[in-house]
Design a protein that fits this description.
Elements (H helix, E strand, L loop, with lengths): L2 H11 L14 E5 L2 E4 L4 E4 L2 H4 L8 H13 L10 H13 L4 E7 L2 H16 L4 E4 L8 H6 L15 E4 L19 H13 L6 E4 L15 H11 L3 E5 L24 E4 L10 E6 H4 L14 H17 L1 H22 L3 E7 L2 E6 L10 H13 L2 E2 L1 E3 L5 E4 L7 H18 L1
Parallel strand pairs: 3-13, 5-6, 5-7, 7-8, 8-9
Antiparallel strand pairs: 1-2, 2-3, 4-10, 9-10, 11-12, 12-15, 14-15
Helix pairs in contact: 3-10, 4-10, 7-8, 11-13, 12-13
The structure holds pyridoxal-5'-phosphate (PLP).
């Protein structure tokens, strides 16, 4: 089959909501490291890692071998049996997460990990209301859609009562029209007002991403989480930290994104790169919080031996290669280069992010900050022409997301930046 046929069959046999990038979507046939090859034999440098998922690169040899061995030995047990693989990953998780996080529940996606976290917070506190953020993304179930703070993803009206959307710490487009640091982090302070005016004063949880991923890599100011979490704890709520995009070294120097803000969550969720492409969702909680979940709940495929082997070997490679440190180093190289590009191209309004999670916000005009989805789409196409795959996001569809493998090399970053530079010149 050639790419054209696959694209046609995709259109014919899949829901139209399974939307692809590009006017002519790339049909990926093979991928190794940071390199991806399409069905027609064209090679691309992958600067998006399958939505921040190929954390140790595509088809890492150690990863491939471990999966092959596992498939030959044990594929499925369901969660009604304990396994070596699952308990091993659960124990390892306690070592790379901050604070007293201790007990885990494994599922097959970030959506389920977040759903599990919210359910657990409600069970533990005996309360129902949840504080979340505008511009957030939590997945595609009806519960996750209710939490998600972006209209395009909310394909149904809110199905769950008691979800309150606090202001996003979106400094570039401050919802209060203020400037950091003179703002006094009013967006965080406003959570108290939100609780006192729109809830019964006893929320179950505050759930937030350290960096709002699908929201366009919105990076909260340094003081944000200490203030926000301080407030919600005063009202008896727990903090659920959604590390689905930021997890395991992505933000540089630390294993978990929230560690940069010095706050310890009661519940944390992971997915995406923790198993380098295998469908794994993880919800970890402190012993006290987790122990409240005594009712029955199972996941047929959650924590299955192959997925757990994938997470285990991903962790082996990440620890050995010290991906947090590599992400910080390569992230700085990338960020410096993007800041240089911002100086040259007036339609780049903002560059932000941490480690190997860097975003570029495109605008029509730096003064008005009018979002430019058109330029963003054109940039994606121009990068494709240069043989470079990147991502996009943001409520206005005007943020480019760059998040390659955490094992990306110095020369691959240089190469990718050169390709972006040529693409930007084409847009000029
Ligand atoms: C922060 C965050 N949470 C949850 C999800 C949902 O994960 P999944 O697509 O694996 O269900 C995503 C997916 O992009 C995400 O970015």
């Amino acid at each position: 089959m050639d790419s054209q046929t696959v694209r046609a069959k995709h259109k014919e046999f899949l829901f139209p909501c399974v939307a692809n990038y590009y006017a002519e979507p790339v049909v990926i046939a093979e991928a190794h490291g940071a390199s991806v090859t399409d069905l027609d034999g064209r090679e691309y440098l992958d600067f998006f890692g399958g939505i921040l998922t190929a954390g140790i690169g595509h088809s890492h040899p150690e990863f491939v071998k471990r999966i092959q061995d596992q498939v030959a030995r044990l594929v499925h047990t369901s969660s009604v049996y304990p396994t070596v693989e699952q308990t091993k990953v659960a124990e390892r998780l306690t070592k790379i997460t901050p604070g007293k996080l201790k007990k885990s529940f494994f599922t097959t996606s970030g959506t389920e990990a977040d759903e599990t976290a919210v359910m657990l917070a409600k069970i533990y506190t005996g309360q129902q209301e949840i504080i979340v953020l505008r511009h957030s993304y939590a997945g595609r179930s009806q519960g996750a859609i209710a939490i998600t703070g972006q209209q395009p993803w909310r394909v149904l009206p809110t199905q769950i009562a008691g979800v309150k959307h606090a202001l996003s710490p979106y400094c570039y487009r401050c919802p209060l029209g203020l400037e950091y640091p003179d703002c006094g982090i009013r967006c965080a302070q406003d959570i108290e007002d939100l609780i006192r005016t729109t809830t019964n004063g006893r929320p179950a949880a505050f759930m937030a991403e350290p960096i709002q991923g699908a929201g366009g890599f919105i990076t909260p100011p340094r003081e944000y989480f200490e203030i926000a979490v301080g407030i919600i704890r005063k009202y008896g709520a727990v903090f659920i930290c959604d590390e689905v995009q930021t997890g395991w070294g992505r933000t540089g120097d630390k294993w978990c994104g929230i560690e940069h803000w010095g706050v310890e969550p009661e519940i944390m969720t992971f997915a995406k790169s923790i198993a380098n492409g295998f469908p794994v969702g993880a919800t970890i909680a402190t012993e006290e919080v987790a122990n409240a979940f005594t009712g029955l709940s199972l996941s047929t495929f959650g924590g299955n031996p192959i997925s757990m082997a994938a997470a285990d070997v991903t962790m082996d490679v990440m620890e050995r290669e010290n991906t947090p440190k590599r992400s910080a180093e390569r992230g700085k190289q990338l960020r410096d280069a993007l800041e240089e590009l911002k100086k040259r191209f007036a339609f780049i309004g903002d560059v932000r992010g941490m480690g190997l999670m860097q975003g570029i916000e495109f605008v029509e005009d730096r003064k008005t900050k009018e979002p430019s989805a058109k330029k963003t789409t054109a940039f994606l196409e121009a990068c494709k022409k240069q043989g470079l795959l990147i991502g996009k996001g943001g409520l206005y569809g005007n943020v480019v997301r760059i998040a390659p493998s955490l094992l990306i090399t110095k020369s691959e970053i240089d190469d990718g930046v050169k390709r972006m530079e040529r693409a930007l010149a084409e847009l000029q």
